[in-house]
Amino acid sequence: MAVLLHRLGHSAYRHRKLVLGIWLFVLAALITCVSVFSGKLDDRFAVPGTESQRALDSLSKTLPEASGAGAQIVFTAPKGHEVTEAPYAATIARTVAEARKAPQVGEVLDPRSSGAVSADRTTAIVQVQYPVQNAEVRPSSVDAIEGAAKAAERDGLKTSVGGSVYSSKGVHVGPSEIIGVAVALLVLVVTFGSLLAAGMALLPALIGVAVGLAGLLALAPAVSISSTAVTLALMLGLAVGIDYVLFILSRHRQQLARGTDPRESVALATGTAGSAVVFAGTTVIIALAALSVIGIPFLTTMGLGAAGAVLIAVLAAITLVPAVAGFAGSRLTPKPGSRAARRAADTEGSTGHTTMGTRWTKWVIAKPLLTVLAVAGILVTLTLPATDMRLALPDNGSAPHASTERKAYDTIGDKFGPGFNGPLLVLAETKNGTASTSAQAGAQVAQKLRTLKNVKAVLPPQPTSDPAQSVITVLPTSGPDSVRTGQLVRDIRKTAPDIRETTGASVAVTGTTAVNIDVSNRLSDSLLPFVAIVVGLSLLLLMIVFRSLVIPVKAAVGFLLSVGASLGLVVAVFQWGWLADVLDVPHSGPVVSFLPIILIGVLFGLAMDYEVFLVSGMREEWAHTGRARQSVIDGARHSVRVVTAAALIMFTVFAGFFPLDDSLIKPIAFALAVGVAIDAFAVRMTLVPAVLALAGRGAWWLPAWLDRILPDLDVEGTSLRKAPATDQKEPQPVS
Fold it and tell me: Which residues are within 8 A (CB) of 342 and not within 5 positions of it... i.e. 6 or more apart?
């Protein structure tokens, strides 16, 4: 692989104008496709094959209003008044008439007919039902509903609008993300000691991100893509794109400072650091693509979209970096006498210059057993809250306090009970039944459901266009993300055989709440197998790369500690509410159900990235000197600085998405930011050197028979040191 990438670096350097032109042409073509064939993002959460999804698909044909999106207009009377008073009742009736005129609206239920008036008569709800899903509801329709609600406030009523039409806000590129990129640029300037080098590191990364994002959006008309998938691709593309460019460009500048010809230096950097980039990127891609085996469409598109962004970042690093470096030529060489030049020249520590990496590693391995016990103890302690982790999909209760959907959610929960925010739909079907027998069976089913625990109310059966069907709305006593609501769904399904035997009707629980519960259950069941696959993959890949048994086991354990500590912090902040006010977390409740799997997939690749970059230098020193302890110190001399910069860039990019008022993106950004920080600083740069120092020569042992059968990926570029240079110097370009 190193030889192939070496040739690619030479070629990209030589044909730099063509390479840059191809990338810019592809970007322009994709942007044109997005603007001409723009498709809608689809934020539905569905699990094909589950009971809830089958029933929902059936209702989409026989009663579209029940299966489609919904909005709620919540009216609250002034203090000392009731919504049933004549002036307020007239205002509500006028609002109902205006809502019926809104585009796409299928049905509007007046509180007088639906009974949606609170017990104290201070609050009423107008239900607006759409025959289409959230993704198909146009913003103009929601604006019309909000406008009708605002008009009612002129008559003294307090209003808010909520419902399922308010979902994930989608892709945002605002001040916080721009600040994240600016901080990344600052880190690059400090790392390289050169504004030119920092800018040239950022350019290929940004082009790669733009191509990846435009490519994903171009697929929207043909493939169901969620707004969360696009945001995750943007987040990952920025983070890994900058990091991968940093790895290659830092190696290139080190070699330039030692007098290597720029063209050969770029090729060598692409062959060595580029090999590590390809390996690390491949592990991220495999882990993210593995999300598709879980069988949940929105998670599949999320994983494949993010994997595509990482793939583009890898391609940009190994092609655009050599091309852009070709335009700069020798101008990227650190100035003689500068700190960057001294660090690059000090390949053996002969100048007496002690780098940050050397000082840190010496301190860490001075008492390696104490270091291992301290770090492991802290990470295990941080992991403890994760044992209480509950998974669910967020609803309007996770929206910012000032938003209209959160106000509606809170008012409904206070006045009608939390279950009103998460009703369950029970589809009752009779075989070859008429409308009358179906209605009779539906009434009997409703009576049975009223006897179940945690049921607050059961509404009368509603017929559909299929005479054999009826839909019964069940209002739990608990909220949609409550454990008791999940238990109620299981209880209804458990009593289904008895209901069928006594009423002749088969029942299926569906609705947004039931679908979300099924999604969370599927993800919970998939978590341990996914962890096993990822950990097994890490053991195999690192065994191949480092020809060792200790290093893969140590890396896998460190990875599990990083994931556990990150999830523990997520539970403490987002589920338990610790520091929620300080961090502006609007709601404490279950963790986003797909967060653990996304975190594992992303953090796995990043952990392998840092592991390869750190340990490859140590293995190289071990191969040259045979001194186990000293090879750990010497190998970390330059890599610690680069990994520190890479981790800081990753952290700031992920943290830049944390301020978003998006209940899906906020916890994911937090988890990835703290996960990168923990894995890079606590595990890779502290635990890894300590464990290697403890293991000594045994860290590099591999049975001979296993060494023979494992393929040699040559991530460290050993073959390049054996091969003679094949290219002559070329004149330096002017621009």
Answer: 351, 353
